[in-house]
Write a structure and sequence with these properties.
alpha+beta, seven-stranded mixed β-sheet, six-stranded mixed β-sheet, 12 helices, 30 strands, globular, binds adenosine monophosphate
Length: 514
Amino acid sequence: MAKILGIDLGTTNSCIAVIEGEEPTVIVNTEGLRTTPSMVAFTTKGERHVGIHAKRQAAVNPERTIYGIKRLIGRRASDESIKELEATLPYRIAPSPTGDAWVKIDSETYSPQEISAIIIRKLRESAESYCSEEIKQCVVAVPAYFNDAQRQATRDACKLAGLNVLRIMNEPTLAALAFGVKKNATGYIGVFDLGGGTFDISILQCSEGTFKVLATAGNNHLGGNDFDTLIYAYLADKFKEETGVDISGDKMAVQRVREAAEQIKCELSSLSETQVNLPFLAIGPSGPLHLSITVTRTELESLVEPLIEQLDAPCLDALDKAGLSADDLEEVLLVGGMTRMPAVRARVERIFGNKASHSVNPDEAVALGAAIQSGILGGDIQEVILLDVTPLNLGLEISGDRVSTIIERNTSIPTRASKVFTTTENNQSFVRITIVQGDSPKASECAKLGTFVLTDIPPMPAGKPRIEVQFSINADGVVNVQGIEKQTGAVKEIVIQDSVGLSSQELATARERI
Ligand code: AMP
């Protein structure tokens, strides 16, 4: 049986695993590391670096070093949160011809799918060298809270990297699988997944090899990068207070302080205080200026408290949607690098009681779960059933900036639902509907998946045609829409306009460059 690669494509780090015998095994990359920084750098000499090599040169090449690309994938450049994000990035975001958020390096633009594909290709090459065989198929993990556009874009990234995606799976569900299969878990468990860019919480019911997600909630705009941004601002302010120099215009200095911010965040997970020393950070009227400051864990915790507070609402929401209370849970698995922070762990204890479980490796559990899912698909692992849910409401934009919900969030997938439309004018030959996905009742606050035009409606008086539109969400969480005119039974062609994603021409160009 050909190997199927399990991929955890993280905002900060990526990890891959395969099934060996019946055991999921993390693959060490070609540099000997179990995780690979999700970074790509372009140099002025025309070279390209990926992973740890890109990370090592980031401070001296900040404008051409791309990190956190997962925060842009499947997103619109005009989104408010993308504009806020751009202000914290050393590289530039530029809209694609259709308005998607792409990155611009010198005069070249790159889609997030292409950048992600460069990372995935490196992962695939590491796997091929480890397994001594060509790998063509994968199971890829995405945050549970990813919408359809983000899922499709992730699939395109894998395709560009030469991998056919057998399944797209939710990260917390895979972590639960890695934990549950090993421990033969029964009862209700929570998976608290705080990574570099996203936060997901899922509640599952486990019994005799069946893993059923009851509810999922989260925040696509909350992760370790936001913590780093707050710490960066604190350090930059301190430097300005002491020296009068504002470093915000100096990208190299900004990158050095950002790296220091992440480093102290990690160090303060095990130390009660730490020292930042950045010599020659700027030049003042009387010569070079250095940043030297001690930061305590208490200071860090009060700085990041506003972010920690944002963890509560999704957890309570997920419990509520699952119809459970914290006492009903056996354990809460901690997944994602940020769960090493003591303040995050303390918050988990506060929300769920004394349930936090450290029995999975937060960096590897998702990839191991993806490998187990590969094993299930490939037939190496039997008697494990996984049932997931759709994380967001799927609906139609209706007048007054409202949403008419068609499939409610937390519905088990695969699922389908239909709605009948009609015309408002005599002989109207088409109907236009806009599909949105999100958890806000306001259409403008949801992701617009596309505008669908039902064409070729036979001439009829207003209100007479009955066009049934079927919406389905498959096991990957990917949305499909099909229209049927009930009078004639004809399946109507649905033209998708304004959808996020790459055109076939853009895919071809990206494929040539990778
Ligand atoms: P992930 O996306 O799961 O790889 O998580 C990456 C995030 O976890 C990054 O923001 C890291 O800075 C953060 N992280 C990793 N190790 C630690 C640590 N020891 N303490 C706090 N944060 C950490």
